[in-house]
């Protein structure tokens, strides 16, 4: 068996095309959505991701607001930029690119954001709303993965899903989304403390690999026909991406997301969805 490719690039392109019309409609109502980004330091990966987010904005007609600080920026300097974006009416949603440099209290920065402008769904208020099943901006990578699986008709209801990783951008919220009634999956979360990862993986209908360990998921650990989502980003000595999923898994899985070209573009598309939805809420509130 050779796995069907879960093409994140093509799926994201379709989402962006639909968003272009919604942004045009918002502009006709007098509201131009604006995405702000806060980038601290000079990590090449983060610089690339933020540049991609602004390229996407230009494609769909969302205004861009870019704030960059050096790696030496203090907690106070970063928080001052967050306050500035909270108060800027042209910025309808924004993100703080993670990770922040060592020594910065990331949680304090996230908590300072205006939850109504949190385009990443990572503010504690919005994560709490997710727990309570209340409307909230959805964390971009987890919901991007669900959208990708739906696009290719991968059944979530009743599926056994193994999420590998427990980081804030994916691992923490992925099970919350997958276990909603609308998804109805059964989730096992694995991490560095898991005793027998292989035993869990072998049971999985869907694997979400977000550990950041190159080729952690081996063909012999994957059930025939499973869907495998590769979220891990490590780099080899030439700078090329090495995912969490061993290339041999393609011969066993039913579906596989390429890396690059899978989950990354879906993360960016979901960010735009969050920005547009927040702007639509603001436009409706202003009209009533
Ligand atoms: N504030 C946030 N920080 C981070 C998030 C996040 O969702 N919010 N997630 C990751 C990084 N990330 C988003 O910011 C991200 C990762 C990958 C891509 C992407 O488009 N990747 C391309 C490949 C790009 C390359 O060649 O390096 C792909 O997969 O095709 C976009 C966004 C951590 N931080």
TrEMBL record:
Encoding gene per record: folD
Purpose of the protein: Catalyzes the oxidation of 5,10-methylenetetrahydrofolate to 5,10-methenyltetrahydrofolate and then the hydrolysis of 5,10-methenyltetrahydrofolate to 10-formyltetrahydrofolate.
Pathway(s) where this gene product acts: One-carbon metabolism; tetrahydrofolate interconversion
Sequence similarity: Belongs to the tetrahydrofolate dehydrogenase/cyclohydrolase family.
EC number of the protein: 1.5.1.5, 3.5.4.9
Key words, A-Z: Amino-acid biosynthesis, Histidine biosynthesis, Hydrolase, Methionine biosynthesis, Multifunctional enzyme, NADP, One-carbon metabolism, Oxidoreductase, Purine biosynthesis
Protein name according to UniProt: Bifunctional protein FolD
Catalytic activity annotation: (6R)-5,10-methylene-5,6,7,8-tetrahydrofolate + NADP(+) = (6R)-5,10-methenyltetrahydrofolate + NADPH; (6R)-5,10-methenyltetrahydrofolate + H2O = (6R)-10-formyltetrahydrofolate + H(+)
């Amino acid at each position: 068996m050779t796995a069907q490719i879960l093409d994140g690039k093509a799926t994201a392109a379709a989402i962006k095309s639909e968003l272009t019309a919604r942004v045009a409609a918002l502009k006709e109502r007098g509201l131009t959505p604006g995405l702000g980004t806060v980038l601290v330091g000079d990590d090449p990966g983060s610089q690339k991701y933020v540049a991609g987010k602004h390229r996407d904005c230009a494609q769909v007609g969302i205004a861009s607001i870019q704030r960059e600080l050096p790696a030496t920026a203090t907690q106070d300097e970063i928080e001052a930029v967050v306050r500035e974006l909270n108060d800027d009416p042209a910025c309808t949603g924004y993100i703080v690119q993670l990770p922040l440099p060592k020594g910065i209290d990331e949680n304090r920065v996230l908590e300072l954001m205006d939850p109504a402008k949190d385009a990443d769904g990572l503010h504690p208020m919005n994560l709490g709303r997710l727990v309570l099943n209340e409307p909230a901006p959805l964390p971009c990578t987890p919901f991007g993965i669900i959208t990708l699986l739906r696009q290719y008709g991968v059944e979530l209801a009743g599926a056994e899903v193994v999420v590998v990783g427990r980081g804030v951008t994916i691992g923490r919220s992925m099970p919350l989304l997958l276990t909603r009634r609308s998804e109805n999956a059964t989730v096992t979360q694995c991490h560095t403390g898991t005793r027998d990862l292989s035993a869990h993986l072998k049971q999985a209908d869907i694997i979400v690999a977000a550990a950041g360990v190159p080729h952690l998921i081996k063909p012999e650990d994957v059930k025939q026909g499973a869907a495998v989502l590769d979220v891990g980003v490590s780099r080899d000595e030439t700078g090329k991406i090495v995912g969490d999923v061993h290339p041999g898994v393609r011969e066993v899985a039913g579906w596989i997301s390429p890396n690059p070209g899978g989950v990354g573009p879906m993360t960016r598309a979901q960010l735009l969805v969050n920005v547009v939805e927040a702007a639509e809420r603001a436009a409706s509130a202003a009209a009533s």
